[in-house]
Design goal:
Layout lengths: L5 E2 L2 E3 L1 E4 L1 H9 L13 H6 L4 E6 L2 H7 L5 H11 L4 E6 L12 H13 L4 E4 L7 H13 L2 E7 L8 H13 L4 E6 L6 H15 L5 E5 L6 H11 L3 E4 L13 H7 L5 E2 L4 H14 L17 H4 L3 H13 L6 H14 L9 H15 L7 H7 L12 H11 L16 H9 L8 H9 L4 H7 L13 H8 L2 E7 L2 E7 L3
Parallel strand pairs: 2-11, 3-4, 3-10, 4-5, 5-6, 6-7, 7-8, 8-9, 9-10
Antiparallel strand pairs: 1-2, 12-13
Helix pairs in contact: 5-6, 7-8, 8-9, 13-15, 14-15, 16-17, 18-19
């Protein structure tokens, strides 16, 4: 990573553009087709971004589940179309891009293949900030020679302090991370904590370790947070081109450029290229109106519930299915209580879905009268360790529900080597090609991959071409499927975001 340099008397702030991944994931349920991105690649490549985030998160799932598109072909297309720009992805630690832990051999193969197909920067996070779940993927990235970005999932609770996050940054640096990302997935990072956290990392570890700041825009305060982070020494910030920004998305790229004027900071972004990128996505966005988020403007209640917008829509859907939409306020009030019982996990995939679903059950059935399998696993350590203590009474209920004990070791240590078994199962499917990429697709989404392999020959499907209301509803609702983890099969419901 080139160091941040001075251009004239101003310090240059580098920028990561989110239009090709988190922007459309947050605003339009990850439904944007590759064909609607390709025309913007030349300008994205020339605009002067430090990196373009374009893969990972929910994009892999959406490609095979809704778009009949091979995510590996998408990555290769980005590599070809942006030869001069770092490609960046979001990796869910030991979960890769799925919703369960994978044993280390599978993690290694996935990282190897992603690097081989063109990925440069791996932003690696764990939903619980459990460093044990980051060790293997970070080690794998370092082995490929690519950029390993260790991630702090920012949240607030009585247990989370600036000092605790700075300590975590130090441990990520010890693990060999090339940079540190402060990832604020729910727009909770207020201006003063943003300043204090970046300043704390820089003061303790020096200017050599780059600090990257990622915020959403939902609460309306985070453009100021970006400014304060920059003043404290942040090196790189994430933004989204204005035509794919705000709401539950991110702050506008062009606004950042203008905000820095006269401050002693500047970007090296080229406004003419930004204008063309903006205009392109402004034309594309209306095609996906059926998937656009209902959150417009600002929502400061998230500071209390900490539930990201995609999870709110999922809980609304769960309640409507049970004829209890009027109980939404009670559920939002229950979420912080469930989070406390679970040891104050950050709320990001999959912990946000787990905590939110349990809050729905508590409101509908009574407190912990019914436990989801995922919540029981969270209480028993099968997702990892939480920063705070978990309620011992609910832990006992979880043991009774799950019929298995509390664990304290790294969850992936329970998993046996599984690559050969996954490979044999994948290659037995019609349409599966004899390549590691297809085996990885099956490994992460065993319920979805068979249909994708079968119909891949039909070519990509653009769902943004004004689908019927019935089709749109079927494409934008919560996704339900089963996963097997540590010998137990669970039904999982996840929001499309």
């Amino acid at each position: 990573m080139p160091g941040v340099y001075s251009q004239g008397m101003n310090k240059v702030i580098e920028v990561t553009e989110l239009a090709l991944r988190d922007a459309h994931q947050s605003l339009m349920a990850t439904r944007m087709a590759l064909e609607d991105m390709l025309p913007a690649l030349a300008d994205l490549d020339r605009a002067g971004f430090w990196s373009v985030e374009c893969w990972g998160g929910a994009t892999y799932d959406a490609c095979i589940r809704f778009l009949n598109e091979d995510p590996w072909e998408r990555l290769r297309a980005f590599r070809k179309g942006m030869p001069n720009t770092r490609l960046q992805m979001l990796l869910r630690g030991q979960n890769l891009l799925g919703y369960r832990h994978y044993e280390d051999g599978v993690v290694d193969r996935f990282v190897d293949k992603a690097a081989e197909n063109g990925m440069d920067v791996f932003r690696v996070f764990d939903a619980l900030n459990d460093l044990r779940n980051l060790e293997c993927p970070i080690r794998a990235v370092k082995r490929t020679g690519k950029h390993a970005q260790g991630t702090i999932c920012y949240t607030t609770s009585p247990m989370h302090t600036v000092e605790s996050f700075v300590d975590m940054a130090g441990k990520l640096i010890e693990m060999g991370c090339d940079s540190i990302c402060i990832k604020d997935m729910a727009a909770l990072l207020k201006p003063q904590p943003a300043y204090d956290l970046v300043k704390g990392i820089k003061a303790r570890f020096g200017s050599e370790i780059p600090v990257h700041v990622h915020v959403h825009a939902t609460t309306g305060v985070t453009m100021v947070s970006l400014m304060k982070a920059i003043e404290a020494g942040a090196d790189v910030v994430d933004t989204a081109i204005s035509s794919l920004s705000l709401g539950p998305g991110h702050n506008p790229t062009e606004s950042l450029v203008e905000m820095l004027e006269g401050t002693g900071f500047e970007t090296r972004l080229k406004k003419d290229h930004l204008a063309r990128i903006r205009d392109h996505f402004a034309k594309i966005r209306p095609k996906y109106h059926a998937f656009l988020s209902n959150i417009v403007g600002v929502d400061t209640e998230i500071f209390e519930s900490q539930i990201p917008g995609g999870m709110i829509s999922n809980m609304e859907s769960q309640l409507k299915q049970q004829g209890a939409a009027h109980k939404m306020k009670e559920v939002l009030e229950e979420v912080p209580r469930v989070r406390k019982v679970a040891g104050f996990p950050p709320l990001v995939t999959p912990s946000s879905q787990i905590v939110g679903s349990q809050a729905v059950f508590n409101v509908m059935m009574g407190s912990y009268k019914v436990l989801t399998g995922e919540f029981a696993d969270l209480m028993l350590g099968y997702y990892g360790e939480t920063i705070g203590p978990r309620d011992p009474e609910v832990m006992k209920l979880a043991e009774d529900k799950a019929k298995k004990p509390l664990i304290t070791q790294r969850p992936a240590d329970l998993l046996k080597p599984e690559w050969q078994e996954l490979r044999e199962a994948a290659l037995a499917l019609p349409g599966c090609q004899s390549c590691d990429e297809d085996v990885l697709t099956y490994a992460m989404f065993p319920q979805v991959a068979p249909q994708f392999f079968l119909h891949r020959k039909d070519g990509p499907k653009n769902v943004g071409s004004d689908p019927s209301p019935k089709q749109a509803a079927s494409l934008s609702g919560p996704v339900k499927y089963s996963v097997t983890f540590a010998g137990k099969t669970h039904d999982v419901t996840v929001a499309p975001l």
